[in-house]
Design a protein that fits this description.
The protein has helices at about 1-20, 35-40, 45-60, 65-85, 90-100, 110-115, 190-200, 205-210; strands spanning about 100-110, 125, 130-135, 140-150, 150-165, 170-180, 180-185, 215-220, 225-230, 235-240. It is of the alpha+beta class and about 240 residues long. An 8-stranded antiparallel β-barrel has the order 1-3-4-5-6-8-9-10, surrounded by 5 helices.
Length: about 240
């Protein structure tokens, strides 16, 4: 009974977050700008730097037009795929070398299911959501939490593997912590169901868990300032590194 009650509470808590994240702010225009995607003359390196420059500004100020942020993410993804194809080992090693640390979620398009429900609108993430990676230990550690000031309202913990050939980070969560006080061990299927029911996770993750497979990110980039990735549910995300 206690376990079921806690699951319901978690779903309500995360449901508030996922709904708020897709409310379009009045201060931004809704016209899609495609300057990043239309460029045909700049080199991939130049386009990567242009996209990262805008994304860094967005991560610092949250004032860049969300549509331009999305264009920059898509441009970065396109050009990083080209770079990875040229030298997979070096490109992926650079991501893995930079991924360790704490990252605050700044912007997300959400899963494809959530995009359909919200009419395709995207926005900056309104809550303090922090993801932590540690690639220096074995097994590698991942945490994902929503915070009020420095208190974790809810935090998931688990481990991950990184496939350098594909830039794919596969992970499982098996522990939920509430208010930093209550800790509950979970199976991957239970975690996947919580994510799918709230919109923060993908229904695809639930299918993967049913088939004994792990949830994943297709990593795009990671450097000293920002990180970007596409989730297994099809959504794009931008994180800002938290200075130590």
């Amino acid at each position: 009974m206690l376990r079921s009650t806690i699951f319901i509470y978690i779903a309500l808590l995360l449901g508030i977050a996922s709904t708020t994240a897709f409310t379009q702010p009045q201060s931004f225009t809704s016209t899609r700008r495609s300057s990043f995607l239309a460029s045909t003359t700049a080199t991939s390196d130049t386009e990567i730097e242009e996209a990262k420059s805008l994304l860094c500004r967005a991560a610092e100020t949250k004032l860049e037009n969300p549509d331009r942020v999305l264009d920059a993410l898509e441009s970065l993804e396109k050009n990083c795929k080209r770079k990875h194809k040229d030298n997979p080992a070096e490109f992926s090693k650079d991501i893995l070398d930079n991924i360790s640390g704490e990252w605050r979620l700044i912007f997300t398009t959400g899963t494809k299911e959530r995009q359909k429900k919200s009419g395709g609108r995207v926005n900056y993430f309104p809550l303090k959501a922090i993801q932590t990676f540690d690639a220096t230990v074995e097994p590698k550690v991942i945490e994902n939490g929503i915070f009020a000031w420095d208190v974790p309202l809810i935090r998931f913990s688990g481990d991950f593997d990184f496939d350098e050939r594909k830039r794919k980070l596969e992970f499982d969560f098996d522990l939920i912590e509430i208010f930093g006080l209550i800790k509950i061990k979970l199976g991957r299927k239970e975690v996947a169901k919580i994510g799918a029911s709230t919109g923060l996770g993908s229904a695809n993750n639930e299918k993967l868990a049913d088939n004994g497979r792990r949830a994943f990110f297709d990593w795009i980039s990671a450097d000293e300032n920002i990180a970007t990735a596409r989730g297994g549910g099809g959504g794009l995300a931008l994180w800002k590194r938290i200075d130590e």
